[in-house]
């Protein structure tokens, strides 16, 4: 299997470690890549202060440390489709966005003004749609989902505002997972409901208050992804002591598929996952104690499985699903082409 070296272990070390402290990262918290692998981003956690994160950009044989004002643990990274920008979501309802093609200051923290504890739930995700015209962010801290125009930063969809003033049982709140359709017309997010038996995924047209809700039978959703044509939604998460997934037919309101079980070594409770579609196959990489496996979410079959040096590792798929990127403090960053 061809393996492409992206970054060496020493390139992941902290540039300014504390005196008498190791520069080796405690773990890799997130990794992302462009479709052509020309840009790869890696978020690392400091061994002496685990809430301190560096975000490194590997491009054209160079490593750049992106500015990260405020000390947060970033657990989700996503590039714009053309690789021109990178968004990171982290703990404490925080997020940053960097322009990569022209010198620019990073966006102000995306969601910090909405409140939330810096030690709140870790699940927080971002999604890009409409060819990079729209950016959606979701956080389990506030339960809010927001969509912005990337060019103007203008908010075009705010779930918290749409349902403001409703009784608690009638509100629609998110749980930290989010997806945008490729054309940028729709947003999907996992719904928090005060009755746990009503777990589901909400799909909305951008800018509209109307919504459809699909029961998933998955109590904790870790990742969502629209199919390229927007007709299906891949869902992956946890149930009891199992990792489970489902693919929803969005054109059939009566479609309620039973989740399939992914035989992972550990349950993926409260772990960020980022499914992608390779053609019409929904795939997701999951890190187990000693392996990284790419799973087909429709069939619950393994597409690729490679050895991984422990759970300090992070893995992601390229946006087209054709390559697996694995990053670890001890082995650096590699990319493998999927069969």
What is the gist of this entry?
With 339 residues, this protein is an all-beta fold.
- DSSP strand content: over 45%
- Major β-sheet profile: 4 strands, antiparallel
| Helix-strand topology string | EEEEEEEEEEEEHEEEEEEEEEEEEEEE
Determine the structural class based on helices, strands and strand pairing: mainly beta
- Spans of at least 5 consecutive residues with low confidence: 111-121
Question: What value does the Rg take, in angstroms?
Answer: 19 Å
| Helical fraction | under 10%
Q: How do the strands line up in the largest sheet?
A: 1-27-26-25
Q: What is the average of the pLDDT values?
A: 87
Number of DSSP helical runs? 1
Distance between the termini: 8 Å
User: Using DSSP, what is the number of strands?
Assistant: 27
Task: Tell me the quaternary state.
Answer: single chain
Shape: globular
């Amino acid at each position: 299997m061809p393996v492409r070296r992206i970054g060496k272990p020493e390139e992941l070390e902290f540039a300014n470690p504390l005196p008498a402290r190791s520069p080796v990262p405690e773990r890799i918290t997130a990794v992302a890549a462009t479709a052509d692998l020309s840009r790869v981003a890696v978020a690392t956690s400091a061994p002496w202060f685990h809430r301190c994160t560096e975000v490194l950009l590997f491009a054209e044989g160079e490593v750049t440390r992106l500015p990260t004002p405020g000390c947060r643990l970033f657990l989700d990274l996503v590039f714009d489709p053309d690789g021109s920008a990178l968004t990171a979501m982290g703990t404490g309802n925080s997020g940053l966005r960097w322009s990569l093609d022209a010198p620019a200051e990073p966006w102000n923290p995306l969601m910090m003004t909405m409140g939330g504890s810096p030690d709140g739930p870790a699940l927080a995700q971002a999604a890009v749609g409409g060819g990079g015209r729209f950016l959606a962010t979701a956080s389990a801290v506030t339960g809010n989902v927001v969509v912005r125009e990337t060019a103007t930063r203008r908010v075009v969809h705010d779930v918290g505002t749409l349902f403001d003033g409703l009784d608690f049982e009638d509100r629609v709140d998110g749980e930290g997972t989010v997806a945008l359709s490729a054309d940028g017309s729709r947003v999907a997010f996992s719904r928090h409901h005060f009755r746990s038996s009503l777990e589901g995924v909400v799909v909305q047209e951008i800018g509209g208050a109307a919504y459809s809700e699909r029961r998933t039978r998955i109590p904790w959703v870790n990742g969502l992804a629209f199919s390229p044509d927007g007709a299906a939604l891949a869902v992956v998460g946890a149930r009891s002591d199992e990792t489970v997934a489902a693919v929803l037919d969005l054109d059939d309101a009566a479609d309620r598929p039973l989740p399939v079980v992914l035989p992972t070594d550990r349950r993926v409770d409260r772990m960020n996952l980022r499914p992608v579609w390779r053609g019409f196959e929904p795939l997701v990489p999951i890190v187990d104690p000693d392996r990284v496996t790419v799973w087909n979410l429709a069939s619950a079959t393994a597409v690729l499985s490679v050895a991984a040096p422990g759970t300090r590792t992070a893995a992601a798929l390229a946006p087209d699903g054709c390559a697996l990127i694995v990053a670890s403090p001890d082995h650096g960053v590699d990319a493998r082409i999927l069969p």
